């Protein structure tokens, strides 16, 4: 991929603070969060692979979500940890491009995957007796492949349009990773055509999956209302609660960052929101999908018993 400005060979990541004490504190915090992220998502994937009770469409998607979150967090956190304890805050142009590409591809893939999970919940609640046939293994694999394919194709579009901008202002990124808002602030030729590309990607990768999720939940609500018993309605809704929390947290932060015009970017405020969906959210997902899940708890107990 060619660059339009050959004078920029690296970027400087400002991070969160220049205070050495606070940097050390942040290093410990981010190391703890990343450790929990790796352990939580890896454990969930192992449980889903090893326990036959978890070999259903729902857990297949949850396992893939854990894989995405583990990979997604690993794109950012190691570099954040290095930045916190090292005097060298630089990241090469190629390194910044790679981080940007993988972060966009994984973020977009997760948007599509969450939409596929919403359809899975609709299929499970609307006709539970035919759920296994409706959500066949072939269909589940295809939905996951489509999620990754769509996510990374759009990441190529975003990355190619972003890194052919002229970064003539400065090479200091007022953030902890290479993202759209700080890079646009550095560019001197972020024209309306680039903003149009951002809106197209927002519509295809965030708005469209959001509409699919909303449509799925409208059908889910209609199906739940047809259930006569209160206990049956509660049980049906409880199977969707984890996914609903996950969607609200993820899409809420994504829409906040990327649905605004570039002229309204506030890097300090955006930095805090970005921390949530890039670092904290991958840690929270295993908790969201396992804390109230009896099958996962039983699988964990079985795994602990076997390892003793």
UniProtKB/TrEMBL annotation:
TM regions (residue ranges): 24-49, 56-72, 92-119, 139-157, 199-225, 237-259, 271-291
Subcellular locations according to the entry: Cell membrane
Q: How does this protein lie in the membrane?
A: Multi-pass membrane protein
Q: Which domain of life is it from?
A: Eukaryota
Assigned keywords, A-Z: Cell membrane, G-protein coupled receptor, Glycoprotein, Membrane, Olfaction, Receptor, Sensory transduction, Transducer, Transmembrane, Transmembrane helix
Annotated G-protein coupled receptors family 1 profile domain residues? 40-289
MF term (GO), any: olfactory receptor activity
Q: Which GO terms describe its cellular component?
A: plasma membrane
Work out whether the entry's keyword set contains Membrane.
yes
**Cross-referenced InterPro entries, in alphabetical order?**
GPCR_Rhodpsn (IPR000276), GPCR_Rhodpsn_7TM (IPR017452), Olfact_rcpt (IPR000725)
State what this protein does: Putative odorant or sperm cell receptor.
What's the family?
Belongs to the G-protein coupled receptor 1 family.
> What is this protein's name?
Olfactory receptor
What organism does the record attribute this protein to? Enhydra lutris kenyoni (northern sea otter)
């Amino acid at each position: 991929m060619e660059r339009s400005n050959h004078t920029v060979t690296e970027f400087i990541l400002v991070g969160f603070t220049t205070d050495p004490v606070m940097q050390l504190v942040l290093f410990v915090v981010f190391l703890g969060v990343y450790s929990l992220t790796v352990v939580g998502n890896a454990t969930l994937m192992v449980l889903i692979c090893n326990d036959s009770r978890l070999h259903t469409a729902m857990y297949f998607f949850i396992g893939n979500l854990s894989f995405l979150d583990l990979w997604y967090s690993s794109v950012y956190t190691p570099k954040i940890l290095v930045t916190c304890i090292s005097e060298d805050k630089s990241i090469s142009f190629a390194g910044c491009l790679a981080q940007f590409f993988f972060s966009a591809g994984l973020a977009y893939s997760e948007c599509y995957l969450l939409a596929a999970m919403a359809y899975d919940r609709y299929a499970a609640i609307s006709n539970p007796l035919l759920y296994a046939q409706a959500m066949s293994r072939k269909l589940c694999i295809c939905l996951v492949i489509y999620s990754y394919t769509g996510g990374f194709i759009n990441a190529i579009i975003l990355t190619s349009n972003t890194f052919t901008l002229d970064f003539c202002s400065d090479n200091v990124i007022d953030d902890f990773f290479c993202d759209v808002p700080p890079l646009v602030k550095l560019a001197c030729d972020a024209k309306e055509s680039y903003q149009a590309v951002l809106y197209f990607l927002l519509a295809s990768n965030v708005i469209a999956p959001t509409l699919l999720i909303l449509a799925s939940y409208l059908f889910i609500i209609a199906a739940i209302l047809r259930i006569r018993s209160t206990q049956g309605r509660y049980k049906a809704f409880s199977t969707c609660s984890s996914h609903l929390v996950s969607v609200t947290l993820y899409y809420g932060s994504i829409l906040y960052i990327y649905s605004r015009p570039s002229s309204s970017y506030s890097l300090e405020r955006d930095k805090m929101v970005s921390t949530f969906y890039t670092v904290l959210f991958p840690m929270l997902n295993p908790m969201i999908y396992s804390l109230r899940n009896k099958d996962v708890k039983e699988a964990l107990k079985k795994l602990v018993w076997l390892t003793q």
